[in-house]
Amino acid sequence: MNYLAHLFLADDDPDSVVGSLMGDFAKGRIDNRLAPAMQWGILMHRKVDAFTDSHPVVRSSKRRLDDGFRRYGGILVDLFYDHFLAVQWPQYSTVPLEDFARDAYRILAGRRVEFPEAMQRSVSYMVTNDLLVSYRTIEGIRQALKGIEGRLKRPSRLSEAVADLEISYGSLAADFDLFFPALIDYVGELQRHREEVFPDLIHTDG
């Protein structure tokens, strides 16, 4: 999943919030010198990604993409699903999206010096461009894709893939409506069995 979903699924603990995004940047064995809640956030990020990548509904969403963008299917579907989460936000949270985003930015900005360099750049871009709120609009998704496009080593024309979102909007929205409640249930189950999951934390590979 993309930024908004990972932050939404994170615990309230600021360490967990940071870890929920650090999962993209902390590879391999999780550093046991990190705060336990941050380690948990990283592990949760990895488990959410694994659940998402293997889910049949997500695979169906990827098949809706133009053949030219299939290689970026994971990136695109993650971002498209964040769009639907932002649009449907009141169904999932009683906290307005603007307030949720502001609190997340505050936590992340206050911990910026602890991030790997690549994460510092990504978080800075997120906060400067208010990405979490911008995901509500098609233009916001287009701009987010342009930002990702600029970080890829190969030319990708990734921002043009927003046309796939527009063309298959209803079908992708239906996919999200099927998938996201299942993801929430999965995360809830992990949280309920946290003590059983936690002993394996340090040995989880990315």
Give me the secondary-structure topology.
Layout: H1 3-9, H2 14-22, H3 36-54, H4 56-63, H5 73-87, H6 89-92, H7 97-110, H8 117-128, H9 131-134, H10 138-151, H11 162-167, H12 169-192, H13 194-197
Helix pairs in contact: 2-3, 3-12, 4-5, 4-12, 5-10
Rg over CA atoms, rounded to whole Å, is 16 Å
Structural class: mainly alpha
Binned strand content: under 5%
Outline: globular
Fraction in helix: 55-70%
Number of helices: 13
Order of helices and strands: HHHHHHHHHHHHH
Stretches with pLDDT under 50, minimum 5 residues: 202-206
On the 0-100 scale, what is the average pLDDT? 89
Number of distinct beta strands: 0
What does this protein look like?
It is a single chain. The chain has 206 residues and is mainly α. Helices cover 68% and strands 0% of the residues. The chain contains 13 helices and no strands. Helix 2 crosses helix 3 and helix 3 packs across helix 12. The protein is globular, with a radius of gyration of 16 Å.
In short, what is this structure?
The protein has 206 residues and is an all-alpha fold. Helices cover 68% and strands 0% of the residues.
